[in-house]
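for the writeup, i need someone to sanity check this before i put it in the appendix. the sequnce is what the collaborator sent (i think, or maybe the updated version? ugh). structure was predicted straight from it, no edits. if anything looks off just tell me and ill rerun, i have time this weekend
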Amino acid sequence: MKNNYFLPLIIVLSIASCSKDNSESVIEPAIPKSTYSLGWEDTNAESNSIVLWKDTIKKVLLTSDKSTRPIDIAFENGKQYVLYITRNQANLSTTFHLITDGISKKLIFNENTGDIIINSLIINNGDVYMTGRLRNPVSGVFKPCYWKNGKLNLLEGSGNLRGEAFDLALIGNDVYVVGSFEVEINSNNRKIALWKNGVKNELTNGENPVSDPILATNGIDVYVAAGEYNGIIAPGLVGLQGFYVKNNDARVNLNQGVNGSLPLFILEPKDIKIAGSDLYILAIESQNASQNATGGRFHFVYKNGAKMPFVFKRAGDPDDDMEVESIEIIGPDVYGVGASFYSKDDFNDSATRWKNGEPTRLGSKGIFSYALKMISY
């Protein structure tokens, strides 16, 4: 798909939690009724609209210039929160905004917002948490961090090496943050780490490159998923093995192969959710580098480490590109959201919602659109 939000192999802005209202105790949640998908549409040549689809019904939250993009969505105690970014192309300044129940407010940071990248939004008891990275204006090194109500919390343990935080969860008073950092300056190899109240626990040894980690919690256990290059799996073929870790237990590899047995070029977790006692992981698979580069990838969901029996289908021709970014579970059904290329319709990339692998177009015909986050309540 021809847009810069289909990210390279190891650069995925991910967000995950069992729900976006991390409660302090394990309370049986109400059964979700609807999915809410956050994305944007090209309104015209000069402006974009940030859009929220309730199931398949579109609501425009705001319309602004082309530099405005949504980041994440959360829900707590009847309130809906949407985080978005605006970049001023004239003076190259960056501002972050939070929409709460339809009202947009600029977020204030003590740091230069031009040095900030934000990856995820979490709401807990009315407190606003965001994860990301902060650039040191002197050294230029990005450090993993999170903000609570605008106050910066740097995550230590990466020294002078580059790092980034991707997601956060709370269990009681404990704050868990997952991220990664390079093992040496300008190295492609990174370690994945889980910080609990600022104390780092390394989940990989840094011998290989890794994908960006994602995180979920059920209020008791913490799950982290990612992909790690696992060496040569076939002549001329280097594989990315998807896995997850529960707390400090041994890592569990996701089953390889499009049909359960074929070697893969890539198996990369994209999103992670918990429903009841079950763990669901959305992952991308491709069998070779050419397939991965041309969009011939497959999107599956793994339930408790085993692949579910459906694949997310393309909306157009079999060779058309597509990307599933986020999932939600309602009862026995698995929903996904992202975008697909509609070659049989109007030759446009359009926001798409899937139910058990079957696509439904969300975006308007003739207009580029994209959906990147999904929650349910």
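The helical segments are 289-293. The radius of gyration is 19 Å.
thx in advance!!
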